[in-house]
Amino acid sequence: MINDILLYVGAAISTLWGIAHIVPTKSVVNGFGQISQDNKRIITMEWIAEGLTLCFIGLLVLFVTIWGEAPNRTSTIVYLASVSMLVVMAALTSVTGARTSIVPIKICPFVKVAVAILFFLGVVL
User: Fold this and answer.
1) Number of domains in the chain
2) Taking a C-beta distance cutoff of 8 angstroms, is the pair 65, 87 a contact?
3) What residues have CB less than 8 Å from 106, skipping those under 6 apart?
4) Is the pTM of this model over 0.85?
5) What are all long-range contacts of 46-51, with beta carbons under 8 Å and residues at least 24 apart?
6) Domain containing residue 19
7) C-beta neighbour count of 100 within 10 angstroms
8) CB under 8 Å to 76, separation ≥6 — which residues?
9) Which of 37, 76, 77, 85 has the least CB density, counted as fewest CB within 10 Å?
10) Residue 72 DSSP code
């Protein structure tokens, strides 16, 4: 029971954090000032891709937890693959975006690691 709660909370945080990435995309791109149209498209693509990835991870874990059978090998693989991806994304953000002065990006690695920990605990408890 507690493991399901941890998985649900992590899934909700990941999905909401993904939505929080997607919603302000236009203002984020505009914050770069006068840059080429190609650079605007690349930043837009990256910003939306990260948001969609976070939503996908959250919704995948949510659906596997809701509709999956009792914990099994497949659900464990989904959960641990999600943990791994979140840790990789957190590491990437730590060495790139988190080095900026933008506060939401600075806390992003911590949010991703926190969700990864929730998912991991949801597997082992």
Assistant:
1) 1
2) no
3) 98, 100
4) yes
5) 47/21, 47/22, 48/21, 48/22, 50/18, 50/21, 50/89, 51/18, 51/19, 51/20, 51/21, 51/22, 51/25
6) 2-124
7) 9
8) 123
9) 37
10) -
